[in-house]
Structures are given as structure tokens and as C-alpha cells.
Design a protein that fits this description.
Length: 850
């Protein structure tokens, strides 16, 4: 029987060796086919004993393994398939076989010099190594070949072919699991090669590399963790969510299983906590799940130290961020609190100084997570964190970073007391703020509970209302200042009982006055409405009544030196244009400022701008003077003594000319009659007329046609007012009407038409003595001048002249008709002449002689 078995074994071996002879053929097709034949032979239903297989391998391995070096790629591929079949599926577990296979694999893909040129063959050979590790996992047979595996993987992980890199990383993980007690001897050698894959363009390679690093560090000393934390943190900025999730998983495993994790919590925590605020929901949920496990484990491991919190502090704080659905467990909070002092400096440095936007975004997310977990204990790190938050909010163009800083600030405000953060923030603002300071301040105020900060709104408002703080013309600064006021208004609950409302009102008015052109004014107006509501006032004018006087007192320091770009000048003009009834209640303060601003020695452009605003204000005199106190004295100083009269005096230069025009326009609005308010009394009007009439008459000769036009209107309005107060004298009429008649020859059509429209008003109600024969020469001058223009080609002029003649007919009809009869043959406007004769003859003597 023994002889028969021996003969049978020899026959099997002989057949196999005969088949293998084809491996020595010079024909590559034969060599390839031989590998197929040998596999088919070994796959038949023939029972081979372990000894027979050993003999087969021993006598043919030289030829079988030599195929891995074959010149033909197809043969090498077939050889790898056969060796895989033989080692993995046919031969029993024995390091004897591996002793011959590993040197060839090392030779082909484990050397610095590239031996195997085919990427596909290198991949298949690496897969062979992977299969060997899988089959021999946790066996003593694999242990002697750990060094060879590491040598191979160190090279293949640096291969240019992405699939080889990816498979190399997964093979490293398998190797660590296959030799858990021995892998640590070689683990650190793999760190540098694997880290080189972190920047690969294929995200699957990056994911596998991160997982491999996680496994390597678990078997390395602390140096391995130190070396990999930085590159792992950079992967948090990866655009692919799967990569960021891989970092979170690795960090979670380290936090749970790394043997010296307590010494490295401060380095590992940011890798996981950043994921809690990731943009992708799946990433956030996965990070939260892992973090919950980490916290529970830490809680269980430190149950004695955390006993008080576990027993007594079971409920969330009274004021907790409303957007947070669930408070982190005690272990999570304790972990952050114990390590935040170590994490804060690095976080602050990267948040403020990193040149990469993604880095700053992740730092902002991490800051939110730290603030939420540390709660009140974060106060100890505020001196380091706040400057970084200021800088990030100011310089960062990425809105995501600013949003994270704002959210973090709101969380800080919720947990940290006002006394703590205000002692750091307000002095910084006093020293010279930028809008980053205001962004952080706004978030702190908004996050602070109303009942804790309501009493402190006045202090913040006072700090912001300083001119050095709130006077800025920069767009972003103004927007943040408005948002700060809005946040303070939300917390303000004391009506008008203190100065808070004034400070906030002042800030808003200043922002309106200095508003950047690109800012929508409605934003500021809305905040003003919110302030009014918080002050429990029904109308905005009530705010102006309350605070205009105090604001004018503050800005009225030395207005003589103001220019058009002076902050206080802009504020003053805004107050004039918007204060309405408060104008009349603060006449003394306004008059004092106007006297200095409009002084003839003051800045010309500033005077011009002020006159323009004053003119628009006087259009609403029914409103602004409704409840005025001391109006007569105010107008006397304003018009007669200090402002209008000096400004109407002629001075050389285009600027002086423009000022005269605006002063006259302003006077015109002041003289326009009002139904609600009586501006001038009989006692004040006569002296005023004596001063203004000569100046307005001289203004009729001004170089500016607009000044001449306004002067005509002003003379008419002044005459009307004098007539109503019965102080209109014939001397005034004789001084005025000839100058207006001259304007009928004005080179500017608008001035001519203006004169024609105003002449009927002036001549319709003349003093009775002007109708007497002593003034016949005046009558003739008026009629002769008008008849000259009655023949104008323009029909509009003819109609206006007719209206004037109608007024003249009430003065001296006889002279008018006589001259018309005499001049009719010489006039072209025969229809107009007939109309005058026909209509004016019917006028009653009573009307003329009245």
C-alpha cells in the first residue's frame, strides 16, 4: 500500500513538473498557457497531501516564481494570478512558502528604484501581498515577514498610480490588525510615506491615508501623534465631506482608545470638535455621535471627580443659547474645560493670522464648539480669543468666518457675565476701534440675557456715543455701528428714564449724517423706529423733542471753524432738516450755531451748504415754528442782524455769488406767507424792510440770473407782507417798481417772465397817495415801458403784460387809455390794443378811485 501511494505521489509530481517545463519556453504564449495549465491541474479533483504540495513547490518554485520577472507583462500577470491561487488557496499555512515569495515581491515593488514598470502588474502584486496578510493574519508564520511588508508598503504608498496608493493604505491597516503585538516595532517608519498621500488629488486616496495614519498612530509612540496631528488638521479644510468625516473618525478613535490620550486631549480634540459645526449635516451628526461616546467614556473614567456635576448640576443654566437643542454631556464639557487653556492660543493664532480662508473657517467653527462646551469657564481665555475675533471680523472677506465669529460671540455673551467681557472690550473700543470690535461687541450684547445686560446698556451706549468712536465715514464701520445700536435697543427696557435713549439716538443721527453713499438709509431709519418703540414713544418727533437740545449743545462747540467735511457740521444740518417741531423749541441753540456757521468770515462752502438746508427747512415753517418760543427775537437776529443781511451784500467771486443766491432763496422761503404761523410782527417788519429793500434792489443787478429772479420774488413777498401789516410806504414802492421794470429787459427769459408775474402783485394794492396826480410821471413811466413790451412776439409775454396793465388801470385808467389810443397805430399787437380799450373802458371809477 505504501509503495502504491508513493508511486501515485511520484506520478502527480512528475505530471506537474512536465507541465512546468513550458515555463522555460521561449514563446511567451506557451509560458502564459503553462501557468493556466498548472492551475487547472491543481484545481482538478485530485487530492494532494501537504507533503506532496511541499514537494511540488520545492521542486518547481524556481520556475514558478521566475515568471514574476518575465519580460512579458501578460506572463507576469498570469504568474501573479497563479501564485495567488497557490499561496492563498492551495498551499497550507506555512512560512516556508512565504520565505521564497517575499524576496521576489520586495525585489519587484519594494525597492527605491522602479523595477516593475507596469502599473497594473504592480497593483496585482500588491494585491497578492494584501491577500497573504489577510490569510496569515494573527499567525506566527507572518511575523518574520513584518519587515518585508513594511519595506514594500513604504514604497508602494508613494507610487504614482492612485489605485496602488489606495490599496497600500488599506493594506497597512490590515497589517496592523494581522500583527497587533509586533506592528509597533515598524509603525513609525510608515508615517512619512503615508503622510505624502494627504495631498493627493483623488479623495479616496486621502481618505484611506487618513485611516491608515489613524491605525499607525495607535501603534506608535507619542512622537507619531505629534507628527501627524498637524497634517490631519489640514485635512479638516478639505472640500470633500468624506475626507473630513475620516478625520473625525480617526480623532474619535484616538480619544477613545489611544493609550496616552490624557496627555494629548488638547491636540486631538480640535480634530473632532470642528466637525460639530461642519457645513454638511451628515458630518455634523457623525461627529456628534462620536463625541457623545467620547464624553460618556471620560465621564465614566472620572466619575469621582465629576460627582458634583453629575449629582447636582443636571439642569441647563437658566439662560442657554436658544439654537442649541441638546446640551453636551458632562464628560464632553469637562474635557473641553480642562483643555481649553491649551487650545485657545493656537486657535487664536490661526483664526487671526492664517492666510488660508478654509483654515479660518474651521477655526471659527471650532471656536463656536469650544464656547458652547466651556460655558462660563471660557472667560479665562478671553484675553487671547477676543483680539483674534476682532481681527477675523475685520479683515476676513469670507462671510462664513464672520458668521462663525458672531455665533461664537453670542454664545460667549450668554455664558460670560457682562462685568467680565466689558472690562476687556470697552477699553479697547475707547482706545480706537475698527468695525471688527463692533462686530464682536454686537454679538456679545445680542447673546447676553436681557435681564443681565439691561442695566448696562447705558454704559455701552455712552462708550459708543463718543465722537471719536461713532464718527466714521467708512461703510463697514457704519453698518456695524448701526447693528450695535440695534442690539442695544433690543436689550433696552427702561423707556426714557435715563440717558440711554439719548446716547443711542445720538449714534443713529450721526450715522444718518455721515452715511456712506452705498448704505441704504432705510436700514438706519428702521433702527430709529425700533429705538422709538423701546422708548415707549408714539412718534419719532417726540424723540427729537427730547434729545435735540442736548445734541445741539454737544456739537455746538466752535462752529466757526466747521467745514463741509466736519462731522459736527453734517450732524447739525441733519438735525435742522429732520427735527421738525423741535426746531422751534431750540431756537436759541440753533440761532447761536447759525450765527457762527454763517459768519461772513467762515468757510464759504459750509455757509453755502447751510443756506441750502435752511432754505428747505423754511419750506416747512408751519411745522418747525408751530410751538416756537422767542420766534421774533430769533428771526430778528437771523435775518436783520447776523445772517441774511451780511450775506446779501455783494462780494467778488463765484462762491460769494452762490452764497448770495442761496441766502436770497432762504429769505424767499422765510417771507412766503404761512397759514399757521405768523413770523413777523408789525414792530419787527418795518425795520426789517428798511434793511432788506436796498439789498434786494441791488441784488436785481447781480451777475447770477437766479439771484435776480429770487430778488424779484423777495421784493414782492416783502411788499405783500408790509401791506398786510400796513407798513408799506409809497417811498418803498417808488424805490422798488422801477428796478423791477428794468428786469423786463433782462437777458434771461426766466427773469423777464418772473418780473412780469410779480408786477401785477406789486401794482395792484399801491398806497392811495401813489394814485394822485403828483405821481403822474411814475404812471407814464410804467405805462410806456409796458406798452413797449406789449408788442413782444411771444404771446406769453403779451398775456403777462396785459395782466400788469390791468393792475395799472386801477391806478390811472385815463392815462393808460390815452396812451393806448396814441400808440395803437404804431403797435403790431392790434388785437391786444382793442382788448385793452374795450375792457378797461368798462372799469368803474370807484375801483380806480378806491
Amino acid at each position: 500500500m505504501t509503495t502504491e501511494k508513493q508511486t501515485d505521489s511520484e506520478e502527480k509530481i512528475s505530471i506537474f513538473k512536465k507541465i512546468c517545463l513550458g515555463l522555460q519556453s521561449s514563446d511567451r504564449k506557451v509560458r502564459k498557457q503553462t501557468y493556466l495549465d498548472t492551475e487547472i491541474y491543481l484545481s482538478k479533483d485530485i487530492d494532494f497531501t501537504d507533503q506532496e504540495l511541499r514537494v511540488l513547490f520545492t521542486e518547481t518554485y524556481i520556475y514558478l516564481l521566475n515568471g514574476l520577472r518575465d519580460k512579458t507583462e501578460a506572463v507576469r500577470e498570469q504568474a501573479i494570478k497563479f501564485i495567488t491561487f497557490l499561496i492563498i488557496h492551495k498551499l497550507p499555512l506555512n512560512d516556508f512558502y512565504l520565505t521564497y515569495v517575499f524576496p521576489v515581491i520586495v525585489e519587484r515593488i519594494g525597492t527605491v528604484e522602479l523595477i516593475e514598470e507596469s502599473e497594473e502588474v504592480r497593483l496585482q502584486m500588491l494585491q497578492l501581498l494584501n491577500d497573504i496578510i489577510t490569510r496569515y493574519s494573527n499567525t506566527v508564520q507572518l511575523k518574520p515577514f513584518l519587515n518585508d511588508c513594511v519595506i514594500i508598503l513604504c514604497e508602494t504608498v508613494k507610487d504614482k498610480f492612485p489605485s496602488i496608493k489606495e490599496l497600500s493604505c488599506s493594506t497597512i491597516i490590515k497589517l496592523a490588525a494581522a500583527l497587533p503585538r509586533d506592528f509597533h516595532n515598524q509603525a513609525e517608519v510608515l508615517i512619512a510615506p503615508v503622510l505624502s498621500c494627504f495631498g493627493h488629488q483623488r479623495y479616496k486616496v486621502r481618505v484611506e491615508a487618513i485611516c491608515a495614519i489613524g491605525e499607525i498612530v495607535m501603534h506608535s509612540s507619542y512622537k507619531g501623534l505629534d507628527e501627524t496631528v498637524g497634517p490631519l488638521a489640514e485635512r479638516l479644510f478639505d472640500q470633500i465631506p468624506a475626507v473630513r468625516r475620516a478625520v473625525g473618525k480617526v480623532a474619535g478613535r484616538w480619544l477613545l482608545e489611544y493609550r496616552d490620550r490624557y496627555s494629548f486631549f488638547h491636540k486631538i480634540l480640535p480634530l473632532l470638535l470642528t466637525g460639530l459645526n461642519d457645513e454638511v449635516l451628515e458630518t455634523r451628526m457623525e461627529a456628534a455621535e462620536i463625541w457623545e461616546k467620547v464624553g460618556m467614556q471620560f465621564q465614566n473614567e472620572n466619575e469621582k471627580d465629576l460627582k458634583d456635576e453629575l449629582d447636582y448640576l443636571v439642569l441647563p443654566p437658566k439662560h442657554y443659547p436658544p439654537h442649541v437643542k441638546q446640551r453636551p454631556n458632562v464628560g464632553c464639557r469637562a474635557l473641553v474645560k480642562r483643555n481649553i487653556s491649551k487650545m485657545a492660543p493656537a486657535l487664536a493664532r490661526e483664526l487671526a493670522g492664517s492666510w488660508q480662508e478654509d483654515v479660518r473657517v474651521r477655526c471659527g467653527q471650532l471656536l463656536c464648539a469650544l464656547a458652547l462646551h466651556a460655558e462660563a469657564d471660557i472667560a479665562q481665555t478671553l484675553p487671547a480669543l477676543l483680539p483674534a475675533m476682532y481681527a477675523a471680523a475685520r479683515y476676513d472677506q469670507d462671510g462664513r468666518v464672520v458668521d462663525n465669529v458672531v455665533v461664537a460671540g453670542e454664545i460667549l455673551g450668554c455664558f460670560v457675565g457682562y462685568d467680565t467681557w466689558s472690562a476687556l472690550v470697552l477699553p479697547t473700543i475707547d482706545e480706537g476701534p475698527h468695525y471688527g470690535h463692533l462686530t464682536v461687541l454686537r454679538s456679545l450684547v445680542r447673546g447676553s440675557p436681557a435681564e443681565r445686560i439691561a442695566e448696562c446698556v447705558e454704559e455701552i451706549g455712552k462708550a459708543l456715543a463718543e465722537d471719536s468712536v461713532c464718527c466714521s465715514r467708512k461703510k463697514n464701520y457704519q453698518l456695524e455701528m448701526v447693528r450695535c445700536v440695534q442690539a442695544l435697543v433690543e436689550k433696552h427696557t427702561h423707556g426714557t428714564n435715563n440717558s440711554t435713549g439719548y446716547y443711542l439716538f445720538k449714534i443713529i443721527v450721526i450715522q444718518l449724517s455721515l452715511k456712506h453713499p452705498e448704505i441704504d438709509g432705510k436700514i438706519i431709519e428702521d433702527v430709529l423706529d425700533e429705538l422709538r418703540a423701546s422708548l415707549e414713544l408714539k412718534y419719532n418727533r417726540e424723540m427729537w423733542d427730547l434729545y435735540t437740545g442736548r445734541l445741539l449743545t454737544e456739537i455746538g462747540d466752535n462752529p466757526r471753524i466747521w467745514t463741509t467735511v466736519s462731522d459736527h457740521e453734517c450732524v447739525f444740518l441733519t438735525v435742522l432738516s429732520r427735527c421738525e417741531e423741535a426746531f422751534g423749541k431750540n431756537l436759541d441753540a440753533i440761532g447761536n450755531i447759525l450765527r457762527e456757521v454763517l459768519d461772513t468770515e467762515g468757510d464759504a462752502e459750509s455757509r453755502l451748504k447751510t443756506f441750502y438746508v435752511l432754505a428747505t427747512v423754511f419750506e416747512k415753517k408751519d411745522v418747525i415754528f408751530k410751538d416756537a418760543v422767542g420766534l421774533a427775537v430769533f428771526l430778528e437776529k437771523l435775518i436783520e442782524v447776523e445772517i441774511f443781511v451780511p450775506s446779501l451784500v455783494w462780494h467778488a467771486g463765484a462762491t460769494a455769488e452762490a452764497i448770495r443766491t442761496m441766502a436770497a432763496s432762504c429769505l424767499q422761503h422765510a417771507l412766503t406767507p404761512s397759514n399757521e404761523v405768523e413770523l413777523f410782527s408789525t414792530e419787527t417788519l418795518r425795520p426789517l424792510s428798511d434793511k432788506l429793500l436796498p439789498l434786494l434792489v441791488s441784488l436785481l443787478e447781480d451777475a447770477s440770473w437766479r439771484s435776480r429772479q429770487i430778488a424779484v420774488d423777495c421784493l414782492t413777498l416783502l411788499g405783500e407782507e408790509d401791506r398786510r401789516k400796513e407798513v408799506w410806504r409809497v417811498e418803498d414802492l417808488v424805490a422798488v417798481y422801477p428796478e423791477i421794470l428794468k428786469r423786463l429787459d433782462d437777458p434771461t427769459e426766466k427773469v423777464r417772465l418772473c418780473a412780469l408775474r410779480n408786477l401785477p402783485v406789486i401794482l395792484r394794492n399801491v398806497p392811495p397817495e401813489f394814485k394822485s396826480p403828483h405821481y403822474k410821471a411814475h404812471h407814464e413811466l410804467i405805462i410806456d415801458t409796458l406798452l413797449t413790451h406789449f408788442d413782444d412776439d411771444d404771446e406769453q409775454v403779451q398775456e403777462l403784460v396785459y395782466d400788469v396793465l390791468e393792475a395799472v388801470a386801477l391806478i390811472n385808467k385815463k392815462e393808460l387809455l390815452d396812451k393806448m389810443e396814441r400808440h395803437k397805430p404804431m403797435l403790431r399787437n392790434q388785437k391786444g390794443c382793442d382788448r385793452i380799450i374795450r375792457n378797461f373802458e368798462s372799469l368803474k371809477i370807484e375801483e380806480i378811485d378806491c
